[in-house]
Structures are given as structure tokens and as C-alpha cells.
């Protein structure tokens, strides 16, 4: 006797799964590749810039401002130079005078003139922790003793403590030479005004069905990566210099070092060491590590500089930020207006 199988009925409440396309197999995507530097980092074998040592190497320390905003009246470091073991003391007067310009700094560009003033303060200090002088000595302990012998006279100025305060019409001007394209003849605390535009924002918000606004603020922070800012600089008799430092951007470091110190990049060799975070930081220690060899001027002069965690917190902090976000949404179309 012949039998027939009942017909299967698909109920409306059930959904049928589409046939899944088999995923292609990749060699890297979707896998967990081995980090080849991981073992050395967790066992302490990784060599960062501060781990390099050379015979007769000098050690650098930095004197920092205790004030948020002040004019530097005078710096007297004669007593520091007389301390046995101290080889050099440098201030911004030992750096070349630079004109306004533009130098590559990773994903952005910087003005070498302002960068130089941040490495060692010129005329004014702009924040608590601003570097004023650097000492080179035969040991870190002697360099720290020498810092205490440097006498600095300040004329205190009103501090600017927030982004909102800095942009007030009557705000205290931090850098008198700073200008913007909108106000080329008026001093300002606004470093730059960058706009990216597409479409008509005014009409977009006017026609939007819903408009939401919000203000976001971030605090001043430091990334807290594994290694401190560090650099070891070695100068030869022909004027060439080799710098060991923790960096992922050796060409940017070479270019900025040449710009700040008035040297040809062809005379500078950067040897990248291990890094704990992909951030273009450590410029202060880098430049200051080269001051003493530059001033001493003899073959083989070398100096190591590594900032302490406390110094990192003072002199190398991520800026606080304020974002004002405005978003316009439409019900009947996939479109929006955005301003921030």
C-alpha cells in the first residue's frame, strides 16, 4: 500500500532562517595573534629608553614652576654650577630664537616657536610644572641637589584655570603673540579655529523634527603608560647626535628636535626603544636630554633624562575639553544635522 507524507505547513508566526553564507577563513581577522613583545614586557626584559646606559653618562633633572602663571624676572644658577659633579645648567636662553612656522607632530602640526617655549619657559611660565631649567650632573642625586640651588624670581600673574575662563572677552592673555585668522590683530587664548562644513546647517536645524543638545566635559588626565618620558642623547665631535628614546614616530621626533634646536635633521639619528602606549609624548625629556651635550660640546658627551611619575603629572597632561553637541533628527528620512 502506498503512503504519502503529510505536507508541512509554515505558520505565519514562524520565521524561516535564511541560508547562512559560510564565513571565509582569514589568517589574521578573527584570530588572536601572538604579541611578540608581550613576553619581554611582562618579564622585564624589554628595553625602554630609560634602560640604556653608557660609560660616563650624565643624568638630567628639570626645575619646574610652582605657579600657574607668572613672569620670570630672573634665574640665578651660579650656586648650582659650583656644586661638585654638576656639568651644565641650561635655560631657554641656550635655545635658538625661532620664528613662527609649522612642524609635523604625528597626526597634527605644531608651531616650533611655541614648542620651544613649552620645553623651557621663555619670559613667562604658563602652568604649574612648566620647565624652567635643566641640570646635567654625574648622578641623579647631585642633579636634584643642584635644582634646589637655582634661584628664580617670579612676578605672579592672574591664572587662567578653565576653558570657559580662557575664552572670556576680558580673559588674561597667556601668550601675547597668539593670533587667529578671524582676529589677526587681537591677542587671544584661542589657539586655532578649525571648521569642517557640509550642507546648510541653518536650514537643517530649522527643518528638523527633533533637536537635541548636550554639553560634554573631560578632565585633565595623563595616559599612565608603562614607561616614563625618557631619552638618552649622545653627541659626537662632528656635531651629529644619536638619541635613544621610547617613541613610535622617529621621523617626527627627528624633525621636531631639529626644528627646536636649530639643527639639520640629517645630523640627528633616532633609535626607537620599547613603548608602552602609542602616543607621541616625551618631547620634553627628549629635548632636555640634548641640552647638556650641546652645551658641553665635546666628543662623546651624553646625557640621560627620565621624568618621574610626579613630573609627568605636572608637565605632561592631556588637556581638558568641552564639547557642545547639537543634533537634529528627521522622522520621514534618514538624515540629520550635526554641530559640535
Give the SSE map:
Layout: H1 38-43, E1 58-64, E2 70-76, H2 78-82, E3 86-90, E4 103-105, E5 108-110, H3 112-119, E6 124-125, E7 131-137, H4 140-149, E8 151-156, H5 163-166, H6 201-207, E9 210-218, E10 230-235, E11 241-246, H7 250-261, E12 268-273, H8 283-296, E13 302-306, H9 309-315, E14 321-329, E15 336-339
Parallel strand pairs: 1-13, 11-12
Antiparallel strand pairs: 1-7, 2-6, 2-8, 3-7, 4-5, 9-14, 10-11, 10-13, 14-15
Helix pairs in contact: 3-7
Low-confidence stretches: 1-14
Structural class: alpha+beta
Enumerate how many helices there are, as a single number.
9
The level of helicity is 10-25%
Outline the structure in words.
Strands 3-7-1-13-10-11-12 form a seven-stranded mixed β-sheet. Strands 6-2-8 form a three-stranded antiparallel β-sheet, with no helix packed on it. It contains nine helices and 15 strands. The radius of gyration is 28 Å and the shape is globular. The protein has 340 residues and is α+β, with helices and mostly antiparallel strands. It has a domain at 49-159 and 222-315: Aldehyde Oxidoreductase, domain 3 (Alpha-Beta Complex). The model is unreliable at 1-14 (pLDDT under 50).
How is this structure best summarized?
The chain is α+β, with helices and mostly antiparallel strands and 340 residues long. The chain has helices at residues 38-43, 78-82, 112-119, 140-149, 163-166, 201-207, 250-261, 283-296, 309-315; strands at 58-64, 70-76, 86-90, 103-105, 108-110, 124-125, 131-137, 151-156, 210-218, 230-235, 241-246, 268-273, 302-306, 321-329, 336-339.
Amino acid at each position: 500500500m502506498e503512503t504519502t507524507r503529510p505536507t508541512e505547513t509554515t505558520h505565519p508566526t514562524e520565521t524561516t532562517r535564511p541560508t547562512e553564507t559560510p564565513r571565509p577563513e582569514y589568517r589574521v581577522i578573527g584570530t588572536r595573534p601572538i604579541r611578540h613583545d608581550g613576553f619581554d614586557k611582562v618579564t622585564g626584559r624589554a628595553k625602554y629608553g630609560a634602560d640604556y646606559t653608557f660609560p660616563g653618562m650624565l643624568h638630567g633633572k628639570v626645575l619646574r614652576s610652582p605657579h600657574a602663571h607668572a613672569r620670570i624676572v630672573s634665574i640665578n644658577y651660579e650656586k648650582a654650577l659650583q656644586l661638585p659633579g654638576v656639568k651644565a645648567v641650561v635655560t631657554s636662553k641656550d635655545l635658538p630664537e625661532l620664528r613662527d612656522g609649522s612642524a609635523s607632530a604625528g597626526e597634527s602640526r605644531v608651531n616650533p616657536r611655541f614648542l620651544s617655549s613649552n620645553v623651557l619657559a621663555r619670559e613667562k611660565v604658563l602652568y604649574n610644572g612648566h620647565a624652567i631649567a635643566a641640570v646635567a650632573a654625574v648622578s641623579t642625586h647631585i642633579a636634584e641637589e643642584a635644582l634646589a640651588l637655582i634661584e628664580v624670581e617670579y612676578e605672579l600673574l592672574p591664572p587662567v584655570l578653565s576653558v570657559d575662563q580662557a575664552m572670556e572677552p576680558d580673559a588674561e592673555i597667556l601668550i601675547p603673540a597668539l593670533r587667529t585668522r578671524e582676529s589677526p590683530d587681537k591677542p587671544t587664548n584661542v589657539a586655532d579655529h578649525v571648521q569642517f562644513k557640509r550642507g546648510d546647517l541653518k536650514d537643517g536645524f530649522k527643518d528638523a523634527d527633533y533637536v537635541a543638545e548636550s554639553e560634554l566635559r573631560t578632565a585633565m588626565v595623563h595616559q599612565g603608560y608603562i614607561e616614563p618620558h625618557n631619552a638618552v642623547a649622545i653627541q659626537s665631535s662632528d656635531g651629529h647626535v644619536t638619541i635613544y628614546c621610547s617613541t613610535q614616530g622617529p621621523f617626527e621626533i627627528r624633525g621636531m628636535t631639529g626644528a627646536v634646536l636649530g639643527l639639520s635633521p640629517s645630523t640627528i639619528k633616532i633609535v626607537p626603544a620599547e613603548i608602552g602606549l602609542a602616543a607621541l609624548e616625551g618631547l620634553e625629556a627628549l629635548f632636555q636630554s640634548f641640552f647638556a651635550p650641546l652645551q658641553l660640546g665635546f666628543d662623546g658627551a651624553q646625557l640621560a633624562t627620565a621624568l618621574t611619575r610626579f613630573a609627568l603629572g605636572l608637565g605632561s597632561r592631556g588637556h581638558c575639553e568641552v564639547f557642545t553637541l547639537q543634533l537634529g533628527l528627521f522622522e520621514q528620512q534618514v538624515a540629520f544635522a550635526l554641530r559640535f
